[in-house]
Design a protein that fits this description.
Length: about 350
């Protein structure tokens, strides 16, 4: 029997909320959970064969673990960490198919977002993780050095050999703003290939919803913002939703609160309270746009950026002292998917 309960995520609180009445007796809901990529992954799928559901879930978990071995900046033996250890400026390094895909994607996203998304931010994130552990600001010289080694113009891609060339010796990659979304999409592909299209993938808050559950028109995802009292629901069918903010992950230094999200252009964490929710066609896109919108905040930059993503919609909450502002950008047709119930 399906156990339906809230799933805590890093930024906002989302839960899958739907009634179990009206389902076909031949199709039953199955849930599968496992900690991966530093988050809890949850699958809810509808199937008339429990063995098929279990086998498919295992394949999906295996695929996510495979991606973690490539993209994790925590795992010392991951492909990106091995690359960081051996890289020399000007030397081409052949990379796996998955890393090649992500590097190409990251280049395009960085261009489309004017640098507000950048996977070469690894030195900055490591500095601020250390700052959180030590409860002290990084030294200015260390910040300057990290910023100098940040920027997607610091690496080139060679299509003929599927290789990457770094311009500087200390570039460190961090795919934290996109990896879980990509993993969610990859997991859903496995369920879809097995004929289990009525599946929801929750990658620690980056959610992809496939075909609606039997007897329903959509998956209903509850969104509770950490800013304000609005409780909203998104009705999703072959669509994704992701959130970003400092509700659960933040740093407090000298009485001031900082987000865990870092601006790649400054190497500094976001100091303003911001929470974002994105609806898009896939979880990968929803994931990185939620982070980008968090860095951009309310204003013209995110408005311009969203023009590059016509199939996406973002809502940005911003809190300054006691005032909360809310603004939405992007595809207005997707706004219809969000309601108060």
């Amino acid at each position: 029997m399906l156990s339906c309960y809230p799933t805590k995520v890093y930024f906002l609180l989302l839960s899958i909320a739907f009634s179990l009445t009206g389902f076909s007796q031949d199709s039953q809901p199955y849930t599968f959970e496992r900690p991966l990529m530093g988050s809890q992954f949850l699958f809810i799928c509808y199937a008339n064969d429990s063995d098929l559901a279990s086998q498919t879930a295992q394949k999906a978990f295996d695929r996510i673990a495979e991606l973690n071995d490539i993209l994790s900046d925590y795992h010392p033996e991951s492909e990106i960490n091995q690359l960081a250890q051996k890289q020399k400026p000007g030397t081409p390094y052949k990379v796996s198919d998955d890393l090649w895909y992500m590097l190409r994607k990251a280049k395009r996203i960085s261009e489309n977002t004017n640098g507000l998304f950048d996977v070469t931010i690894g030195n900055c994130t490591k500095l601020w993780r250390r700052a959180k552990r030590r409860k002290e600001f990084p030294e200015e010289a260390a910040l300057a050095h990290a910023l100098e080694n940040t920027g997607s113009t610091n690496f080139e891609l060679i299509s003929e050999t599927q290789s990457v060339v770094f311009d500087k010796p200390e570039i460190k990659l961090d795919f934290g703003g996109i990896a879980k979304g990509f993993a969610a999409d990859e997991a859903f592909k496995i369920f879809e290939a097995a004929g289990l299209e009525s599946t929801m993938i929750d990658a620690g808050g980056d959610i992809f919803c496939g075909k609606a559950p039997p007897g329903k028109t959509a998956w209903n995802v509850k969104i509770i913002s950490g800013l304000g009292n609005d409780t909203l629901y998104a009705s999703l069918n072959y669509a994704a939703i992701a959130t970003s903010g400092d509700l659960y992950r933040f740093l407090e230094l000298d009485g001031k609160r900082y987000s865990h999200i870092i601006n790649p252009l400054t190497c500094m964490p976001i100091a303003e309270r911001v929470a974002t929710t994105v609806i898009s066609e896939n979880a990968e896109k929803a994931d990185f746009l939620a982070s980008v919108a968090n860095v951009a905040g309310i204003g013209k930059p995110i408005k311009r950026i969203m023009r590059n993503y016509p199939k996406s919609y973002v809502t940005v909450f911003s809190k300054n002292t006691h005032k909360i502002r809310k603004k939405s950008y992007g595809n207005r047709q997707l706004k219809k998917l969000i309601t108060r119930q």
